[in-house]
Amino acid sequence: MIKIYMLRTSPKLLITLIVLLSGCATYAGYSLNQLYGAPSAQHRISDALAPQAMTYHNTVKPVIESRCVVCHACYDAPCQFKMSSPQGIDRGASKEKVYQGTRLLASAPSRLFIDAVDTEEWRNRGFNAVLNERIQTPVANTQVSVLARMLELKQKNPLPGHTILDDSWDFSLDRNQQCASIEEMTAYETNYPLWGMPYGLPKLSDSEYNIMMDWVRSGAPMSEAFAPSATELANVEKWEQFFNQSSLKHQLSSRYIYEHLFLSHLYFDDQKHPHFFRLIRSTTPPGEKAIEIASRRPFDDPNTSTFFYRLVQVQSTIVDKTHMPYALNDAKLASINELFINADYEVISLPSYDPKEAADPLTSFAQLPVYARYKFMIEEAQNTIMGFIKGPVCRGQLALNVINDHFWVFFVDPELVKNTALKNFYASQAKNLTLPAEKQSNALPVINWISYAKKQGRFLRAKNKFLANELANGAHLTTELVWDGNGTNPNATLTVFRHFDSSTVTQGLVGEPPKTAWVIDYSLLERIHYLLVAGFDVYGNFGHQLMTRMYMDFLRMEGESNFLSLLPTDVRHAELKNWYQGANQNLTEFIQGDINQFDQPSGINFVTNTPKLELYALLKQRLANVQSVRYTIDASALSNKAKQALHLIGSINGQSASIFPEVTFIAVEPDSAHSNSSSRLELFSLLRNSAHKNVSSLFSEASNRDHKNDNLTLTRGLVGSYPSAFWRVKESQLPELAIEAMHIKSEDDYRRLLDRYGVRRTTSDFWQFSDQLHQQYRINQPIEAGLFDFNRLQNR
User: Fold this and answer.
1) Which UniProt keywords are present, listed alphabetically (predicted)?
2) What is the model's pTM?
3) Starting at the edge strand that comes first in sequence, how are the strands of the sheet with 503-507 ordered?
4) Are 284 and 256 in contact (CB under 8 A)?
């Protein structure tokens, strides 16, 4: 009726109605002020040893982590409401989106712990309270709390009794989030009675609900995380002393290490239950409270002549999607000293923080030995590559449709970069190896793409010429040029899985031989890091983000080209053509004119008519000693019959494979004869690898899909941070499950399979299953484990 009436009103009356409606929230705020007083930030967070802290840590925090943090953590938390720390809960929610690919100008960063010092400052930044900030009484604490009313709304209106929720539920990542403030809650409760929290998942149990409501009534007291042990603090002191020595060698080396580890979760592996730390730049020295320098990028000017590298404790709950553990120990410190400090070289002066220089690591760190830089990165190559997967760039299809769904990664042997001629070559290419971050957070993509394409083309032509000269004495490219991890380092081979708008990197060659592979050398690895990790600004404008994605095309093709150079010359062209079917004219010209010019014969004597598979076999043989059985189905304790069933599921391909979700976690309850404990689960991951004609097109992924070549990879253990589906099955049921999965040809077939084995978001014991899954993950991988994110769970 309102809509009909508005169509018949005069413009003047229409404007009056709009003003009145928009003033509802203002009126609600006035009413709340009358009832409960004016809002003012409260002091809720106490020391971890305070008397009330134990109740929070032992009773309240476990409920928040297991029921709330699984959807509310990191940059992609709905409404930026990060419940993974007391500071995030107290900060509250914002209607502004971090991932906003259409913004014309870069926005102000809103990083928790970095960009504001307290809750009052976050209020000034537009964040709305979710806890009561008015008069502190039990009634007010519940009635003026968005969190309490969201939980109460769900208890009063649980999920409807349907297996699959109807279309009124929007589970897309780009959905229109309401982000209701307390002034808007009454309207929200009226308009969306089923949208209480947890959204689209079962309600809390009565005991969990009572715990949360009692906590809110009492004023929602919270406490800091428990402090590190005395041993850890001693280790912190030792490492901070190393990072802050005054010699130019130490200063430049510390800057390099910081710019590569600023996202990592550092820990001391001499602890059974270690705390995690971040490496930051602080205005205060060791021994004082660290005050982080809030720069957009790690290589931005600190705007102070004196600053210090500090290790600060990670205050937030560990979540899988951002967790990049990196071990610190005496052996690591000795290695760093050997590479950077004891090596025979001299630092004449320190590089500036001017963006044009600081954004180009091949220039800014030219005084550091190339060998030291490369060895530092590849010794922990999984962590290095994980940065562009679990860093801010990870979110969103536009950021990730630059890579294939499944590929293997190899590395050039670091001994080869000791070549003085190679160092001189990199120096000669400084102008051609500049990166988009030099434009900072605002950029015009099209003009810059043309410029960078020309530079990359000049670099590749120079590189081809350099290699031809180096190989002119009869040497050839063989598998001996590929790093073997010195026979012990599992980082020598990696597998990358893309899950549409997220991805995962694992150690080892996992799955069947993929369509493509990369061979990465020093300059490529360094540029990937400074493009997607150190130089990427998630708050940048659309041009910066688009330019980053477009430039990654060059780097991906460079890695692929390095791999192709090991194949016979006549095969390279055909293989590349197959990888880039239907590529646009500009990219085709670039490939034909630059990437594909290297015609130095491979030194490998191929004997089959499938040289790519033969090359994979040779590389596997060379790297056999560093291959882990962690992801191998046959390493599980299940029966041979059960393993055979799992292998069958993993062999599904073609159109049938395209029906399966991106990431399925499978929990198998073993027969008692194959398990040390009847309650212990065997965990597996079923990953869909979506085939593409090419991955060079920005906005036409659907048209580039090649469904007939889709396939699945089934691994032991959990791979991926964002599960799309859960299966729960007894070991004895696996053969039946395999048969049913093999016969899936339609959405109805898949739905029937879930009816028998699926744990849907509507399943009554969903939360108990979630708890069991996380518990087993922590048992299996105590250092790597973090809470999974349920924002991508399907409604099927």
Assistant:
1) Isomerase
2) 0.92
3) 503-507, 494-498, 406-411, 516-520
4) no
